[in-house]
Amino acid sequence: MKTCVKCSKDIPDDALYCPSCGASQQPQKKSRKKRGNGEGTVYRLPDGSYKAVKTVGYQLDNESHKAIRKRVTKSGFKTKKEALAYLPQLGAQPQGIRKDETFLVIYEMWLPIHMDKGVTKSTMDCYKAAFQHYKPIWYTPFSGLTIEALQACLDNCPHGKRTRQNMKALGTLLYKYAIPRGYVDKNLAQYLTVKGEASKEREPFTDEEIEIVRQSIGKVPYADYIYCQIYTGFRVDEFLKLDIAKYNREKGVLQGGEKTEAGTDRYVSISPKIQPIIDRLTEGRTEGLIFTDENGKALTPDRYRKNCFYPALKAMELPLPAPDGHERKLTPHCCRHTFATLVKRIDAPTRDKLELIGHTDEKMLQHYQHANYEDLKAITDKI
């Protein structure tokens, strides 16, 4: 006879369960610790933040003559994941600034943590693109960077002011990550200057230019794409991701958009001026992208600009000269401005116009009620 592992009563030798208490007599597997001894642990504080704790040694107490645990701690982590990620660094260099990690390593450590904060894919893509322009300093120790080196990356960026602004924003975020973790002690990104031309207000297509685009459909490649972009108001990256599966042919409505909470997967009713074009592009298909290249392949915003949009404008001899003689430049984003301009002319509730455009002012959107399909269609039928 053997005894129960739980209640200690006698049970048959071949019993799998105790007849008295029902406890299993099978050996229980011990759960494996996620972290070994000395690797530290994480605690949640009353305010909801997290604290990382690691034992770094022991010292003898002079009075009790007992060994007292020496621990290092760091508080203020917003998530458990951040605190756990910091454990390997905790206590590694108790004094001074860490000087070994490069700009590239800091970026790679920051990236997954920032993505976990719910930042949209569009915003993260902007940061990733900005990071590429820091390539000359990728392998420079982060603590050894100078304002001159950072500023040179911005000044040598071949793109416009917006990209440089994204570079400065990324630099600020990296310093915000690095400073509390002991890699540096000062944010140099705050001193960066975004140089270049003053930001110009994007101009919409004029009514005459819209008519030229319409008349060029079937004659100039991708004139129909530009016409559709003008009458949907999607940003270029949103426009190129529009999916046939999210197009309701019967109701004449598209679903798409990203970047902001207000603009993500919004419904945009289709103007009768462009529905025949979209019907033609989607005819016989039930899935895939609506707007593709001549081979049916996906277009990136960069390819669309270089291979489709600007060649089409050149073929149509656009933009037209401005009456006051100032130089005009039309970009894909001008299509969105054109749509907003057309919508403003329609007498309709502001909430409905915001719904169509995917306004980024979330506080304003919260103030307005949700617009229904019929209200939106009433606007796009008139523009």
Gyration radius (Cα, Å) is: 30 Å
Please, how many helices?
14
User: Tell me, what's the shape?
Assistant: flat
Largest β sheet strand count, sense and barrel closure: 3 strands, antiparallel
Strand order of the largest sheet: 3-4-5
Task: Give an account of the 3D structure.
By secondary structure, the protein is of the alpha+beta class. About 35% of the residues lie in helices and about 10% in strands. The strands form three sheets. Strands 3-4-5 form a three-stranded antiparallel beta sheet. Strand 3 and strand 4 (about 50-60) form a beta hairpin. Helix 3 packs across helix 5 (about 160-180) and helix 6 packs across helix 7 (about 225-230). The relative contact order is 0.08. Residues about 95 and about 360-370 have low confidence and may be disordered.
Brief write-up:
With 383 residues, the protein is an alpha+beta fold.
Provide the fold topology.
Blueprint: E1 2-3, E2 10-11, E3 41-44, E4 50-60, E5 67-77, H1 80-86, H2 103-115, H3 121-132, H4 147-155, H5 161-178, H6 207-216, H7 223-230, H8 236-239, E6 247-248, E7 253-256, E8 266-269, H9 275-282, H10 301-315, H11 332-344, H12 350-357, H13 362-367, H14 373-380
Antiparallel strand pairs: 1-2, 3-4, 4-5, 6-7, 7-8
Helix pairs in contact: 3-5, 6-7, 7-11
